[in-house]
Specification:
This protein is mainly α. The protein contains five helices and two strands. It has two domains: 34 residues; 80 residues, His-Me finger endonuclease fold, CATH 3.40.1800.
Length: 139
């Protein structure tokens, strides 16, 4: 059943066999094109005419989706901070992206403990100042 033969007056409902054949033909056509495209890309990469595509990890995709930060931008921030947390100066394997929840602006990279600290303080300077006073008074 071809689309150019479509006439609403003489329209018949296709049988299960006809539907299966249509789906199979579409699947086979798509599979053939995909395989040919993959082979073409592979041959271009092998000849050095197409650069190797670096896939993003799930963490990198999350950073891109949540904060709009590319892996290159994260790496440049990481190197600028010398791999250290902006608050405590620790050097963990991975640093969290700290951002202002109101403006969505990225501030810097923090270790997970400092990031949680700011989160529990609700980014409030007043709460953090009272916490410092509390700690100083109980030395």
């Amino acid at each position: 059943m071809k689309t150019k033969d479509f006439d609403p007056k003489t329209m018949t409902i296709p049988t299960e066999a006809e539907i299966s054949k249509i789906y199979f033909d579409v699947w086979k056509d798509n599979k053939t094109k995909t395989a040919a495209q993959r082979q073409h890309k592979y041959s271009l990469r092998k000849k050095g005419l197409l650069p190797k595509v670096e896939k993003m990890t799930q963490v990198e995709r999350n950073r891109k989706y949540n904060y709009g930060i590319t892996p290159q931008k994260y790496k440049s921030m990481f190197l600028f901070q010398e791999g250290k947390c902006a608050i405590c100066g620790d050097s963990p394997k991975r640093l969290c992206v700290d951002h202002d929840h109101d403006t969505k602006k990225i501030r810097s990279l923090l270790c997970s403990k400092c990031n949680v600290l700011l989160g529990f303080a609700r980014d409030s300077v007043g709460i953090l100042e009272r916490a410092v006073k509390y700690l100083n008074s109980h030395k």
